[in-house]
Amino acid sequence: MARFDLPPEALRTYRPQLAEPTDFDAFWADTITASRAAAGADASADAVDAADAARTARRRVATPMTSFDVDDVTFPGFAGDPVHAWLVTPHGADRPLPAVVEFVGYGRGRGLAHERLHWPAAGYAQLIVDTRGQGSVWGTGGETADPHGSGPAAPGFLTRGIEHPSTYYYRRVFTDAVRAVDAVRTFAEVDPARVAVTGNSQGGLIAIAAAALSDGLVAALPTAPILCDVPRVLGLTDADPHVEIARYLAVHRGAEERVLATLSYFDGAILATRATAPAFFGTGHLDTIAPPSGVYAAANRWGVRAEVVDYPWNGHEGGEGAHWVRQAEWLAGEASA
Predict the structure, then answer these.
(1) In this predicted model, what pLDDT tens digit does every residue of 167-193 receive, in sequence order?
(2) One of 242, 287, 310, 323 is an active-site residue; which one?
(3) Is 67 a catalytic residue?
(4) For residue 312, cis peptide bond before it (omega within 30 degrees of 0)
(5) Has residue 2 been placed in a domain?
């Protein structure tokens, strides 16, 4: 793969000016307030905690693992819809624990609980969150339905309901992410003041949204997030999943203005400005799925301190296991009691 994006020195200072909707903050505040209300909570933090504790179901799962405890969790997401997750905790560890809420990549679901043990092995409670409507493309499955319909769409998820922000698929997904943070803070084994969010690719974008739309997180660790600096990346790469939007526009001629207006509510580089917790990004400079300029657009517009780890000769795989070691070392400092 040849280099196709900005050179490293340009990436480090790349901070695009993006058009933000005038009602951006009101849109998200209303969306999240309505979904919390659907679970029976008013605007107060205590009411949210009490309602979520009452509406969140947990069931201990028997596994062959002796070093970890696993709970099958269902919590209320967008509009109160049930969202599934795994809570994995180190067996016998002192409580309360710092927690990592992890969002998964495009097309996969939460899978099986034993597949992602790196964070609990490092002493964290880990909530692995399903992505509604996904989980049937790769991995080992998902269980969360998306009961809300949308208009015509290209195959995939990026164009579902894309003609208006109120119907767009990721409105529901991002709200689920905020509600996952709400839910994990109600667990007795979790320190609510030491919750971080993370994810790769689509999961990285969802982690950015959770960091922008939740209060009091200790850190965000997005790697190779998609849908960042949308006006640029749509014309820069023809790789999935961004090409789904190009396919849609190729058929729905004249819809570009409406589509870009919708996406501005969900652009990771716009959401990034609302983040209040420090961030630790990762990017591969040969990544055609989540181009590095999009990653840097989000990092350089981050609301507080942000750091980017570069992998000059890697694509969407980025740093893989090597990057997790760097994440764990960084987060240990941020989440220390």
Answers:
(1) 999 999 999 999 999 999 999 999 999
(2) 287
(3) no
(4) no
(5) no
Residues in the chain with pLDDT values less than 50? none
Domain housing 201: 8-331
Count of domains in the chain?
1
Q: Is residue 337 part of a domain?
A: no
pLDDT of residue 20: 97
How confident is the model at residue 2, as a pLDDT? 75
Per-residue pLDDT reduced to its tens digit, 248-257: 999 999 999 9
287 tagged catalytic: yes
CA distance 215 to 293: 27
Is 316 a residue of the active site?
yes
Tokens linked to 251: 């058929």
Say if residue 248 carries a ligand binding annotation: no
Alpha-carbon 173 to chain mean position: 8
pLDDT in tens, 226-252: 999 999 999 899 999 999 999 999 999
Catalytic residue among 201, 214, 264, 293: 201
Q: Domain with 157 in it: what CATH number?
A: 3.40.50.1820
Could you tell me if residue 336 is inside a domain? no
Please check whether residue 216 lies inside any domain of the structure.
yes
